[in-house]
From TrEMBL:
SUPFAM superfamilies, per the entry: Glutaminase/Asparaginase
InterPro entries associated with the record: AsnASE_II, Asp/glu_Ase-like_sf, Asparaginase/glutaminase-like, Asparaginase/glutaminase_AS1, Asparaginase/glutaminase_AS2, Asparaginase_C, L-asparaginase_C, L-asparaginase_N
EC number, as in UniProt: 3.5.1.1
Lineage: Bacteria, Pseudomonadati, Pseudomonadota, Betaproteobacteria, Burkholderiales
Source organism per UniProt: Paraburkholderia phenoliruptrix
Assigned keywords, A-Z: Hydrolase
Residue span, L-asparaginase N-terminal domain: 18-211
Name the UniProt record assigns to this protein: Asparaginase
Pfam families according to UniProt: Asparaginase, Asparaginase_C
Enzyme class: hydrolase
Single GO molecular function: asparaginase activity
Keyword presence, ATP-binding: no
Residues annotated as binding substrate: S74, T107, D108
Residue ranges of domain Asparaginase/glutaminase C-terminal in the record: 229-340
GO biological-process terms attached to the record: asparagine metabolic process
């Protein structure tokens, strides 16, 4: 018997990975009356079966198990849907007959959903989000290739243990690092501070670095029914304390401030936030800049005021982590700063 032929035959006969594809709506499932219209469309109207039908190459990559989880414009993402999605992903990755999960999502809040799952999925199995900047009805729609690449990444053994990933425009990003950086370009998602994890093209997947910070199985976070009320305020020229005072009156558990520069805060807003912290409201300093990190100011400022530094997390991801940390029982700036330093 020819050994090489035998090995080739056994490889060819190996079963394809089973990848669950959860559709939630978004531009990737959007449609417009005119194929040249990439702005005036309705998101989330194309079902998962139709999305899959235009990518016949998927059948050579994985056995796809489709599921319509939601049909929304991701600008309308909600806490109950986050709970549903996270619980469903955890149920799927716990099943022996599922090797990975792909989630099609709108681009507007993709980075928030991805980071939420990065902190709450309890498995090493790949979970990959993807999306599109052009609706399914558009000329040169980018959704089909992004979907094929996402399934290719989820089916690849190298994606195991990397946490939740985002496959977009041939790049593979960590959910912690990735942000949307353009309102229209097909390369809208970038990891500005340290770059993508790797790339996927023509069926080939290559990781060039690994995720370092704790995620998925290494976190204490679990999805529950109750979400602590956390809001975001911004610092800018002439800002008043009105918004902070109103949020404290409304009973928020935490406030993330999108500060200027290195998380700096206008004096009027800083006093309002200090008053909020003295009343037990968690205050986290982030930055509106778009890249870089917010340094902890130590005893001279943060320690004295009871503030927490978000590090390199933008305000929207900082809000996700703050909600999860508060829900997990972290109280006070010391415990919260530990969470931001770890995750």
């Amino acid at each position: 018997m020819n050994t090489q032929t035998s090995l080739s035959s056994s490889r060819a006969a190996a079963p394809l990975p089973r990848i669950a594809v959860l559709a939630t709506g978004g531009t990737i499932a959007g449609a417009a009356a005119d194929a040249t219209n990439t702005a005036g469309y309705q998101a989330g109207v194309v079902g998962v079966e139709q999305l899959l039908s235009v990518v016949p190459a998927l059948s050579t990559v994985a056995h796809v198990v489709p599921e319509q989880t939601a049909s929304i414009d991701s600008k309308d993402m909600s806490m109950p849907l986050w709970t549903t999605l996270a619980q469903r992903v955890n149920a799927l990755v716990a099943a022996d007959d599922i090797d990975g999960v792909v989630i099609t999502h709108g681009t507007d809040t993709l980075e928030e959903t991805a980071y939420l799952l990065h902190l709450t999925v309890k498995s090493d199995k790949p979970v990959v989000l993807t999306a599109a900047m052009r609706p399914a009805s558009a000329l040169s729609a980018d959704g089909p290739l992004n979907l094929l690449n996402a399934v290719t990444v989820a089916a690849n053994a190298a994606a195991r243990g990397q946490g939740v990933l985002v496959a977009f425009n041939n790049k593979i990003h960590s959910a912690r690092d990735v942000v949307k950086t353009s309102t229209y370009a097909v390369d809208a998602f970038q990891s500005p501070e340290i770059g993508a994890l790797g790339w996927v093209q023509d069926g080939r997947v290559e990781f060039q670095r690994s995720v370092v910070r704790a995620h998925t199985r290494a976190t204490e976070f679990v999805i529950g029914a109750n979400w602590p009320h956390v809001e975001i305020v911004a610092s800018y020229a002439g800002v008043s304390r009105i918004a902070v005072d109103a949020l404290v009156t409304a009973g928020v558990r935490g406030i993330v401030v999108a500060g200027t520069g290195n998380g700096s805060i206008h004096a009027s807003l800083a006093q309002a936030l200090a008053d909020a912290a003295s009343q037990g409201v968690a205050v986290v300093r982030s930055s509106r800049v778009g890249s870089g990190h917010v340094m902890r100011n130590g005893a001279a400022a943060d320690d004295a005021l009871g503030f927490v530094s978000a590090g390199s997390l933008n305000p929207y991801k900082a809000r996700v982590l703050l909600m999860l940390a508060l829900a997990a029982g972290a109280t006070g700036p010391v415990a919260l700063q530990r969470a931001f330093d770890m995750y």
